[in-house]
Design goal:
mainly alpha, single chain, 0% strand, globular, 13 helices
Length: 314
């Protein structure tokens, strides 16, 4: 019954799944921050276990599908995508150990903006005035949060923005891969490649977790995977314009968790800047979804930032 409900095309179902996904994302980010700041595990090691336990969650899926999803003629490109994805994740996790949760969430909304800019430059998509307007608005939002010249630019903010920009490169590769490979194949290679790749940097900072740390690491891996699955499912059963605005709840959950667990109080700049960035990114996705709905006038190279690509792929 639960499976039937979750797969039923419905705005209400999409909204409920999307809300659950934002809670899972915020919980996973809080787990990373707690493990790195309170339990003193290195973010690189946390990233490995996030991928490892996430892989275990998806293992039954691989058993069911077999080797069929691994058929591809672009293994090299899949590897490059996994490497880029891993770098973005490592930077994002380090940022979570340095700055408040809400600030990370707010700056993380810039990923679709960077992806749109790269698509304009690399995929030679049409340059619409509204695209540039949204990109400029998103930049202003980031400046409101970082406030260069008014305060020192902290390393954590730079790492989040770098992570978002690098993740945008992974999004472009996903767009290229999607021309020949299915989403199942793309997902399969991401999970299979990122787990062993993330072990390499983790080895240099390795320490065996204790019992409590094991529990938190399992929580991070499971919640991160469920968050990604929920995000994809929400956009499968409901229109993007219905569920995408709810992604902003990640900022609210992050602020609440940060306040109660870490005594973090985000200032007005984080809220205003985060809302500005999110609105700009959402507007781009909405307008491009409208463009895709008009195949007669849309460019063959027109692509939009997929809903599941809205952040640095934690």
């Amino acid at each position: 019954m639960l499976s039937t409900f979750l797969n039923r095309p419905s705005p209400l179902v999409g909204i409920l799944i999307m809300v659950a996904s934002t809670v899972a994302f915020a919980g996973m980010h809080a787990g990373v921050r707690y493990l790195s700041t309170e339990q003193h595990l290195h973010p690189f090691e946390i990233a490995f276990f996030r991928n490892f336990f996430g892989f275990l969650v998806l293992a039954p899926w691989f058993v069911q599908k077999g080797l069929t999803p691994l058929h591809t003629q672009k293994f090299g490109l899949h590897t490059v995508r996994a490497l880029i994805n891993l770098v973005a994740m490592l930077l994002f996790f380090v940022a979570l150990s340095l700055i408040p949760l809400a600030k990370v969430q707010a700056l993380g909304f810039t990923a679709p903006l960077f992806a749109t800019l790269l698509a304009l430059l690399m995929l030679r998509e049409k340059v619409f005035l509204w695209r540039w307007g949204a990109l400029i608005a998103g930049l202003i939002g980031a400046l409101i949060i970082v406030r260069p010249g008014l305060q020192a630019i902290d390393l954590g903010s730079l790492l989040v923005l770098s992570s978002a920009a690098i993740w945008a490169g992974a999004i472009i590769i996903i767009k290229i891969l999607s021309r020949t490979d299915s989403s199942v194949t793309i997902t399969a290679y991401m999970v299979l490649l990122m787990t062993p790749l993330s072990l390499i940097p983790a080895v240099f900072y390795w320490q065996w977790p204790d019992f409590e740390q094991w529990l938190w690491l399992v929580f991070v891996g499971v919640s991160g995977t469920l968050a990604q699955l929920g995000l994809a499912q929400a956009f499968r059963v409901a229109e993007a314009t219905v569920v995408l605005p709810l992604d902003f709840m990640k900022l609210a959950w992050g602020a609440a968790i940060g306040y109660f667990l870490f005594a973090e109080v985000p200032d007005a700049g984080v809220w205003i800047g985060g809302a500005t960035i999110f609105t700009a990114a959402t507007y781009i996705v909405y307008r491009e979804s409208q463009t895709k709905a008009k195949p007669a006038t849309a460019s063959p190279s027109d692509t939009k930032v997929a809903p599941s690509e809205s952040g640095p792929g934690p």
